[in-house]
């Protein structure tokens, strides 16, 4: 997994560094008005879709929403990162360019019949489910599964401080380049969920020893091998562990998609003899099915999750080696597992 280090750089001698941090376009300001005006007349809107970011390693993900509310899949995207003032609204001109990264598209091919293959709530209950989404699921994320492709553009970076950061995005779409599309985000001292290098919480979630398979998995074809062991027991095996917080039936946004079927299951089939795979439904299924209420299971609270799906690759030492929030491709997960096996 390639990590781009966003560290304090001086322009003198910076050309010798792999990460370009000097030069480039100038941004006039980082107040709300300047950020909003930067995308006026642009046929798509960029949005950072991470639920939260923290100091240290992060996999940033940017989505490009078109005017119909769909997602742009074919684009070239670069981002210049800036450390901003403590209050960008009152000091919009204070910014220190920190680095530049090229984002890689990650795409899931979504079957239009995906939602109907499970047993979702009845119409009235489905509306109640949508109204009870966790706080992270804002309006822009509540996009139905329209079309076949869901794409986010990602890069692994390491933030060196907490506070406000700015993203100046250059994107080429349909042969036209759009420059300096601005986003602001706040980087916390620590993410709500475990960060890279943190010990994985030793959760004792429900398994097949406690419940029927349909009570702990909403998958059409649940895999018993991913529902037999608690995280706590898996951490004692000395093997890498993949913990996937995914709900096939109660996915509410375009940024979940068929992650279990297209990503986790293929990785399980390839590595099940060398790594432990655990699927955790993030919601209490009985309430989701009968009441339309998305009540998190205890493991979601223990791990501090603000979104789903989110997948953790845990090394033999019991520490988080990689994490993937939202859309990813199976190659990303396979690379993380291979690294954890070494």
What does it look like?
- With 342 residues, the chain is an alpha+beta fold.
- Residues 1-24 and 114-146 have low confidence and may be disordered.
- Strands 1, 2, 3, 4, 5, 6, 7, 8 and 9 form a 9-stranded mixed beta sheet that branches.
- It folds into 2 domains: 4-110 and 148-188, Immunoglobulin-like (Sandwich); 213-341, Glutaredoxin (3-Layer(aba) Sandwich).
- The longest helix has 13 residues, at 259-271.
- A hairpin with a 5-residue loop joins β12 (310-314) and β13 (320-325).
- The chain is 17% helix and 30% strand.
Question: Brief description of this entry?
Answer:
By secondary structure, this protein is an alpha+beta fold.
Radius of gyration: 20 Å
Helix percent reads 10-25%
Main beta-sheet annotation: 9 strands, mixed
Tell me which CATH architecture of the largest domain applies here. Sandwich
CATH class of the largest domain: Mainly Beta
CATH topology of the largest domain: Immunoglobulin-like
Order of helices and strands: EHEEEEEHEEEHHEHEHHEEH
- DSSP, total strands: 13
Please report the number of helical segments.
8
Mean pLDDT: 85
Cα shape: globular
Structural class: alpha+beta
Multimeric organization: single chain
- Give the N-to-C terminal Cα separation: 13 Å
- Strand content of the residues, in percent? 25-35%
Query: How many discrete structural domains?
Result: 2
Low-confidence stretches: 1-24, 114-146
């Amino acid at each position: 997994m390639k990590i781009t280090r966003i560290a304090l750089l001086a322009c003198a001698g910076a050309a010798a560094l792999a990460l370009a941090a000097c030069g480039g376009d100038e941004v006039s300001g980082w107040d709300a008005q300047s950020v909003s005006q930067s995308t006026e007349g642009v046929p798509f809107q960029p949005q950072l879709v991470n639920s939260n970011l923290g100091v240290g390693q992060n996999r940033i993900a940017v989505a490009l929403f078109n005017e119909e509310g769909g997602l742009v899949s074919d684009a070239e995207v670069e981002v210049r990162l800036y450390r901003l003032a403590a209050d960008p609204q009152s000091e919009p001109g204070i910014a220190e360019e920190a680095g530049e990264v090229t984002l890689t598209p990650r795409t899931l091919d979504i079957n239009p019949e995906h939602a109907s293959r499970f047993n979702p709530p009845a119409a009235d209950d489905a509306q109640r489910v949508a109204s009870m989404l966790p706080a992270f699921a804002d309006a822009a994320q509540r996009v139905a599964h329209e079309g076949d492709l869901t794409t986010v553009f990602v890069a692994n970076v390491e933030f060196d401080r907490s506070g406000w950061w700015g993203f100046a995005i250059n994107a080429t779409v349909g042969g036209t380049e759009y420059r300096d599309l601005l986003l602001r985000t706040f980087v916390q001292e620590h993410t709500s969920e475990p960060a890279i290098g943190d010990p994985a919480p030793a959760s004792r979630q429900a398994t097949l020893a406690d419940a029927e398979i349909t009570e702990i998995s909403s998958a059409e074809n649940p895999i018993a091998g991913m529902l037999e062991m608690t995280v706590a027991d898996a951490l004692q095996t000395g093997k890498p562990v993949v913990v996937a917080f995914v709900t096939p039936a109660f996915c509410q946004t375009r940024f979940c998609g068929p992650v279990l079927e297209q990503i986790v299951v293929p990785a399980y089939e390839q590595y099940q003899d060398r790594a432990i795979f655990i699927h955790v439904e993030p919601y209490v299924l009985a309430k989701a099915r009968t009441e339309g209420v998305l009540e998190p299971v205890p493991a979601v609270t223990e791990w501090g999750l603000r979104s789903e799906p989110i997948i953790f690759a845990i090394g033999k030492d019991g520490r988080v080696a990689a994490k993937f929030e939202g859309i990813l491709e199976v190659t990303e997960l396979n690379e993380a597992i291979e690294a954890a096996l070494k």
